[in-house]
Recover the amino acids of this structure.
């Protein structure tokens, strides 16, 4: 296998990595907010469920969660799963896992907003909903960008965990190529590493730009 | 007879076992400026917070313009179902301003009237510009709170309260968070409002200011009103020993 073929194969599978990454963000960013609301629910059982969910997501390996989502429906519940279940299971596992972490980040961001902001809004007649969406949420977004940057960079690297249920993202592909006869061997891993590194560099750059975009005010 | 703007009748409020307000009654008429003084922990902020519904009273009555916002039935305070109309009667200026940091000065002034009260943006903007001019801040309309001094932020906060056209304005130690050299500009603005007969209730530690601006001074201690009356009387020649002691400590400290 030539170096060029190896790069092309890695790049093709990098698209899968990229879809896991972007679909996870697309799902987990809003779901995290819903989980946060669940934590604050007036109904105790909802609060308990959310608490248990978050503690499981944080207390067990994502790899294991992925296996449960992938094999669980069929082996435990006897449900016949759709053809593309492998990929769906990866996305579902990533979204519910990351939503739990995001919810915690949102919570600490929201709790760091001084109570005076709520009180000023209340006296001015803002409803609860308006207070949250107009006053609290925008300030929360600014506060959570640095911890979210960390999570997003971790996510880029975590996509390689999808390998455990046989999803052929870039890392799985690199493993396959490296052990194939007459392959570039270890160079493959170096190149995969480079892909991750460059992508993360870009992610960090964009998150930094986002942080700067909020510099027009201080909290 | 001047119109009654606010009546607080027999207000009681406790936090756990701590009785903070013990049967407080205050009535404020149109155009009156009332200052509340008292040592730390005497319940002054709690009183303003009860009047502005930031705390719920345990018992008593709260009336704005003669309408009951809260009353006591079977020993328990009950609030009117729709407090929104009552909230539009008053404004509150906080010790630490509580401006919205992500909004420009102009947006801080305009957002509540436009998005809450549904007033026309053009009309609100005109009013906001007028108020900023009055506060000496017309050049700061597009600035963000973090770009302003404490005194400027407090004047924006006063403008933000005024643009809602409140019938009464509450101040909770409006200059306590400010450097001494910045208190003057805020007190001057409040003094001007007093001259325009804005109805105000001001919790303050600035005795000279209270004396100059108020129609009535209330001295609170331990959750009760110890003494109230004309500023020259309460501050110049108090009849209660507790008031005298407070003022003595005050001059010393
Ligand atoms: N939310 C609360 N929970 C428990 N105790 C409270 C609460 N708010 C106030 N208190 C207590 O109530 C008492 C009166 O407080 P308040 O803030 O009304 O005093 P104050 O007269 O405004 O004092 P200061 O001059 O220091 O501002 C204090 O002992 C305070 O610790
Ligand atoms: Mg106070």
């Amino acid at each position: 296998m030539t170096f060029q073929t190896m790069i092309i194969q890695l790049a093709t599978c990098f698209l899968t990595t990229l879809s896991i990454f972007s679909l996870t963000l697309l799902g987990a960013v809003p779901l995290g907010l819903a989980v946060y609301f669940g934590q604050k629910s007036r109904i105790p059982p909802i609060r308990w469920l959310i608490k248990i969910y978050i503690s499981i997501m944080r207390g067990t390996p994502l790899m294991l969660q992925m296996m449960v989502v992938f094999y669980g429906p069929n082996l435990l519940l006897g449900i016949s799963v759709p053809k593309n279940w492998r990929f769906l299971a990866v996305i579902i596992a990533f979204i519910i896992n990351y939503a739990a972490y995001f919810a915690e980040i949102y919570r600490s961001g929201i709790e760091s907003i001084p109570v005076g902001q709520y009180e000023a809004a209340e006296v001015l007649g803002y409803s609860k909903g308006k207070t949250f969406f107009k006053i609290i949420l925008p300030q929360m977004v600014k506060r959570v960008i640095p911890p979210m940057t960390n999570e997003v960079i971790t996510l880029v690297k975590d996509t390689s965990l999808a390998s455990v249920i046989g999803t052929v993202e870039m890392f799985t592909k690199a493993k396959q190529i490296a052990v194939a006869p007459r392959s570039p061997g270890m160079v493959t891993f170096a190149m995969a590493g480079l892909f991750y590194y460059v992508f993360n560099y870009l992610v960090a750059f964009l998150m930094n730009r986002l942080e700067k975009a909020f510099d027009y005010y201080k909290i | 007879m001047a119109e009654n703007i606010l009546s607080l009748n027999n207000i009681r409020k406790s936090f756990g076992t701590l009785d903070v307000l013990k049967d407080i009654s205050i009535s404020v008429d149109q155009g009156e400026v009332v200052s509340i003084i008292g040592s730390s922990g005497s319940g002054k902020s709690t009183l303003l917070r009860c009047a502005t519904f930031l705390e719920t009273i345990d018992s008593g009555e709260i009336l704005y313009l003669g309408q009951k916002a809260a009353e006591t039935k079977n020993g328990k305070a009950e609030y009117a179902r729709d407090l929104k109309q009552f909230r539009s009667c008053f404004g509150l200026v906080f010790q630490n301003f509580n401006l919205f940091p992500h909004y420009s000065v102009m947006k801080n002034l305009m957002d509540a009237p436009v998005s809450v009260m549904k007033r026309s943006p053009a009309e609100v903007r005109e009013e906001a510009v007028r108020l900023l001019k009055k506060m000496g801040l017309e050049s700061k309309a597009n600035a963000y709170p973090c770009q302003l001094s404490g005194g400027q932020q407090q004047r924006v906060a006063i403008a933000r309260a005024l643009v809602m056209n409140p019938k009464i304005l509450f101040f909770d130690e409006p200059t306590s968070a400010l450097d001494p050299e910045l208190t003057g500009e805020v007190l001057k603005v409040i003094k001007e409002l007093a001259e325009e007969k804005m109805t105000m209730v001001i919790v303050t530690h600035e005795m000279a200011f209270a004396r100059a601006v108020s129609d009535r001074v209330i001295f609170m201690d331990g959750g009760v009103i110890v003494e109230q009356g004309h500023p020259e009387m309460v501050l110049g020649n108090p009849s209660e020993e507790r008031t005298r002691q407070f003022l003595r400590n005050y001059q010393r400290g």
